[in-house]
Amino acid sequence: MPEPTKPEPMPADLRALAAEADALAERTAELATRLTTAADDHLQRLAQPMHKATDDLIDCTDEITRTAEYLTRVRVSRDPNLCDVPWGVCPAHGVTLRSADDRAWCTTSGCANTWEYDRLHTPCTEPATATATDEDGATGSLCSAHASDAAQRLIGCTIHYLDNRATNS
After folding, report:
1. pTM (two decimals)
2. Averaged in consecutive runs of 10 residues, what is the pLDDT profile of the chain (169 residues)?
3. CA 89 to CA 50: how far, in whole Å?
């Protein structure tokens, strides 16, 4: 008999885990302080690994919190009224993003659009404004920026805008 599948984690599950890690970091920091102020030199030396453990737990908390934020974006992107494309765009300029260190920005000269997460490698959450059909008949809902890009890059692609604008080829 197959093993039952576990439900997909929710952002709240990750936030609760981050809170637990944060509480543990606070406890290790308090113990490190107590070891630092101990009268015994041997105990004082033990404070160093406790300080490292505290720093590691803080890093862990940050990583879990960041993952919860990304999970929220991924879950939101499943909304059928949003773009189907699994990567982000600059809503004003299209496929012009770069990313590094959990940040993204538009590379178009003069564009001030930046995001404090890796929008490039996160599913698009822009509203769907068009349906694209490729030469094999596969369709998808696209935001205006992804629709414009698809019209330029995909051979045989047709775009039908949901506001009944003319179909592009």
Report:
1. 0.68
2. 80 93 97 95 93 96 93 86 93 94 94 94 93 90 94 91 65
3. 43
